Amino acid sequence: MKPHLKQWRQRMLFGIFAWGLLFLLIFIYFTDSNP
């Protein structure tokens, strides 16, 4: 396995994790602010 491909996959996983965390924070924020 090429190290470049591994690095790209790691970056992609981090990106998906970051977006998921961001959406989760927005979801929690809106559900908390709206009673």
Automatic annotation (TrEMBL):
Gene source species: Pan troglodytes (Chimpanzee)
Origin: domain of life: Eukaryota
Keywords attached to this entry: Membrane, Transmembrane, Transmembrane helix
Name used for this protein in its record: ST6GAL2 isoform 4
Transmembrane segments: 12-30
